[in-house]
Amino acid sequence: MTSLLSLRHYSHELLSHSHSHAQIVFGLSGQLDFEVCGRGSQVSQLTFAVVPADTQHACGSRDGSRCLVLDVPSEQWLLQRLGRHADAGRSLLDNPGALQLAPAQGQLVGWLAANPSNDPVIAEQGAALLLASLVSESGHPGEARRLPLAAIDAYIDQHAAHPLQVADLARLAGLSAARFHARFLAETGQTPMEHVRNRRLQLGLDLLQNSPLAVGEIAARVGYGSQSAFTAALSRRFGCTPRALRQRRE
C-alpha cells in the first residue's frame, strides 16, 4: 500500500483478489459491478463499497468506471485519526456492501479526486476527514450495523447436531473469524463458542422438558458425542442431572 488515496480506472476485465487491509471504493463515473463475500452490488457516483480486510472480492466494469480508492492502513491509524469515532470506523469497515453518500460527502470525494492523491498531506488528512464523515454521529451507516444475532441463533439451532466453528458463524455476518470473535465478545459478553455451547444446552433442556426422547438421543441432537458428556455439561450449566431437570417439568 503506497498511498491512502488513489484514482483507479476499471474496465470490463474482472479482478478477483483479497488484501490484508480494509478498503473503501468511491464511485466517480461509470458503473462498477462489485461482489464481496458473495454479495453483489454496484458502485457509481454518490455510492461507495466497503471491503473488509482479508476478504475475497471481485469487481469489473463493462463500459469502464473511474473510482477513488481509500486503503485503510491499520487499526492504529484509525485510533489516531478518528479518536472517539474509531469504534464506529471499525464497525463500518467490518461490514461489506455498497452504501449511499450524502451530497456533501460526494463533494468531498470529488474534491479529493481532483487534487493530487500522491501529496502525503492531502492523502493523510483527506482520508481521515472522508472516513470521519462516514462515521460521524450525524448518521453514519456503520453504527447501526450490529451482528445478526437472530440469524446466528437460528443457524446454531438448525445445525446443533453437527460440528460448528467460529468461521461458520462469521460467514453469516460477512466477517473474518478473528473480527467476528472480537465483535461477538464486545456485543454479547461471551465468546462465539461459549454462546454455541449455551445454546446447545438450552436446546437440550427444552427437549428434556418438552419431549419423550431418551437422554442419549437428545445428546446427539444437540451435538454431544456421548450421553455422559451431555450429562456432565448439563450438570455444570444447570446444577442438575437430566433426570432431575426432566422431573422439574413434570
From TrEMBL:
Q: Which InterPro entries match?
A: AraC_XylS_family_regulators (IPR050204), Homeodomain-like_sf (IPR009057), HTH_AraC (IPR018060), RmlC-like_jellyroll (IPR014710), RmlC_Cupin_sf (IPR011051)
Q: Does the keyword DNA-binding apply?
A: yes
Q: Which Gene3D superfamilies match?
A: Homeodomain-like, Jelly Rolls
Stretches assigned to the HTH araC/xylS-type domain: 150-248
Which UniProt keywords are listed? DNA-binding, Transcription, Transcription regulation
Write down the Pfam families for this protein, in alphabetical order.
HTH_18
Tell me yes or no: is Transport among this UniProt entry's keywords: no
By its UniProt entry, which SMART domains does this protein fall under?
Answer: HTH_ARAC
> In the record, which residues are listed under signal peptide?
none
Function, as annotated, reads: Regulatory protein of the TOL plasmid xyl operons. XylS activates the xylXYZLTEGFJQKIH operon required for the degradation of toluene, m-xylene and p-xylene.
Q: What is this protein called?
A: AraC family transcriptional regulator
| Organism the protein comes from | Pseudomonas zhanjiangensis
